[in-house]
Amino acid sequence: DVTWLKLGRHLRLPDGAKMIIGRDESDNNALLAHPNDKFEQVKFKESDDIVGAVSFISKNASFADKELAARLALAYTRASKDSKFDVFVDGEKFNITREDKELAQKFFVK
């Protein structure tokens, strides 16, 4: 847990879930190298070959927080804004388009 506090962008979603989004390749690698059993990774369909930050959300997050996490995770990638992508969050699948990173601003932990 201490390692994760030092890494990434930390967000608190409306229903209380915590989210961490890697800031750079170093953060991404460190988050992936130090698994945390309190979080689930937000994943993209492999065939979409999406490049960007790795993201994690608290386990047992609400459906609304999972959907928001999918949108936020996709915002921090280089995915096309003109296409829809499948994003997987703790057993749920969301088919969404990439939004602007501004969406994340009000959820950052300060």
UniProtKB/TrEMBL annotation:
Positions of the NFACT protein RNA binding domain: 8-93
GO molecular function: ATP binding
Keyword tags: ATP-binding, Nucleotide-binding
Name of the molecule in the record: ATP-binding protein
Organism: Campylobacter concisus
